[in-house]
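ok so i was messing around last nite and threw this chain in just to see what happens. nothing serious, just curious
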Amino acid sequence: MDQHPTTPGQGLTRPPHLRPGDHIAVVAPSGPIDSQRLTDGCAVLRSWGLRVTVAPHVLDAHPTLGYLAGTDADRAADLQSAWLDPTVDAVICARGGYGVHRMVDLLDWDAMRAVPPKPFIGFSDVSSLQEAFAQRLGIATLYGPMSAAGSFITDGPTADHLRRTLFEPTATTVLTSPTATALVPGRARGVTAGGCLHVLAAERGTPAARPSYAGGILILEDVHEQPYQLDRLLTQFLRSGAFDGVAGIALGSWDGCGRLDRVRDVMLDRLGPLGIPVIWELGFGHCPSTLTVPLGVPAVLDADAGTLTLEVPALAER
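result:
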């Protein structure tokens, strides 16, 4: 299987940005989907002038495992069909949950590599797919809100930031938030990578896992992991060498992870000794209002300013 490792300073292939009238497909690679949220999310996408197709198995339920949206084979088939369909201009995941790890190796990566790239949007459990897109297809993806997830439907700024990233990517090259501060001061340059901490940890040792994030700007966030669990996950990465040579780190939200001061203590204890700049609470991930962050794009992290500045827009010109 061909691999496309990220080279320090060199981004992955960026798909083209969208235009009104383009066609977006909704897929469910992980957990079961609430039908009303799906309807509401599709209405938001249509309000942007997009044509929306919901993949055939999005509202399926696994026959025995209620935490999955249909069978592994059907979830993989929906994603692969949408990616290979030449009329589809972008693919967005309906929600996360759990399930990507079970279906990611069922995809025909050779066939997917043979077609032009398109924007792929998701976060949380979708981190596993985004790692695979980076390693197996060499394509940049968007770590952003999903169409049947709460923040996309209920928070206007969340949806608008994704809309501008998809349609006007030159307008979203500076990422920051009111909560962004320096955990470790400094400035660094590298290619963005990362996602949900516990999902990335579960990727270690699989075909999609990169040996390390050397030279990269790592983005990390999580939900419902207590401070000692976050410590365990970070320690696993440190012991495996995955963080060796990382240029900088941007931390996102930690909803449901206990007291934020305790989480901050863990991050400083585990990441501070790396001697690299770290931003605390940049404002992406499992939070009520979230930024869309591209993965696979060269960027400059300025911890003192609390900014992550993309050196090129998240998506390419058409």
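not much to say yet. The chain has two domains: 23-169, 174-310.
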